[in-house]
């Protein structure tokens, strides 16, 4: 028996897929997790998603789909979290390659479904931006989700759309999703989060990290990303909702527009037209900006006063938690210094580590 889970946005959605599988289906079987190799610039300095030619050591799973085993390596300067995920999680990670547009993704998914004959197929999105219309002012990364949605709705197989952690990616407010969310399939618990706890010690995903933290009981307001987006942590945060796939497509203008695309640049053009931007353009611009930046030196003696100032300002905004990515950028450090900063803070003030988040200290 095989379960297929499509990680709608790649990155952290692939990690959340492992937690979902453990929660819904137990650990007696493995899942095939179909996901993009599309990581943040601190992992992969090249904008956009990677294709099979960007790796060595991939294994052919079907004529159209490649498996990413633990021994695979991205070809420098590209980077990817997928080989390490394959090494640490008991699942098969298959590469979703969007360079041939939604048509290419549909073909890959059909080929995999035909080969696996899975017991179930779930399309998973953490946060819910897969349900965006496209004109929301807080929307930041619609393209990856829209491509996955456009492909899944064209496959001749029953696919269940699941949204975990409504609003936790900071792109749509929970209130924006309320009329779309269906029944609660599951509410993640601390026990469920254990399935990915070791991965979240190093994986940079903020939304899935926040999801795991809320499963462990974190409540309040968490600031994420370089912009410091406030994300409410409530009792609804660790829930998983089923959403009607047809309703999602009817709502998502970008997904409808790109269904017949045969190239990624076509899909990008539609994103610019409908949403006003492409997230890959943002990555291109940020990659150029990062090249010219001189990050501050990670001086342990200077970090604590800077952190105290950041926390004091965060408290005035009602913030109770934040991510290590947010702290790293707020202190003008580079993404490559994130892990060193994380170790420094946890070793120095372990009582503030609310895994995998950082809890803002009380005013005292």
Summarize the structure.
It is built from 14 helices and 16 strands. With 364 residues, the chain is an alpha/beta fold.
The arrangement of helices and strands along the chain is EHEEEEEHEHEHEHEHHEEEHHHHHEHHEE
- Main sheet properties: 7 strands, mixed
Secondary structure category: alpha/beta
Strand content: 15-25%
Which word captures the global form? Answer: globular
How far the N terminus sits from the C terminus, by CA atoms, comes to 55 Å
Residues in helices, as a percent range: 25-40%
- Strand sequence of the main sheet, in spatial order? 7-2-1-8-9-13-10
> Radius of gyration from the CA trace?
20 Å
Number of helical elements: 14
Low-confidence stretches: none
E-strand count: 16
Task: Please state the average pLDDT score.
Answer: 95
Question: Can you characterise this structure?
Answer:
The chain has 364 residues and is an alpha/beta fold. It has 14 helices and 16 strands. 38% of the residues lie in helices and 16% in strands. It has a seven-stranded mixed sheet, with helices on both faces. Helix 1 packs parallel to helix 7 and helix 3 crosses helix 4. The radius of gyration is 20 Å and the shape is globular.
Please write out the topology.
Layout (H helix, E strand, L loop, with lengths): L2 E5 L4 H14 L5 E5 L19 E2 L2 E2 L5 E2 L5 E2 L7 H7 L3 E4 L5 H16 L3 E7 L15 H11 L7 E5 L9 H4 L6 E4 L2 H4 L12 H10 L4 E5 L4 E5 L5 E5 L1 H7 L1 H5 L6 H12 L3 H14 L7 H17 L4 E2 L1 H7 L7 H11 L4 E2 L2 E3 L5
Parallel strand pairs: 1-2, 1-8, 2-7, 8-9, 11-14
Antiparallel strand pairs: 3-6, 4-5, 9-13, 10-13, 11-12, 14-16, 15-16
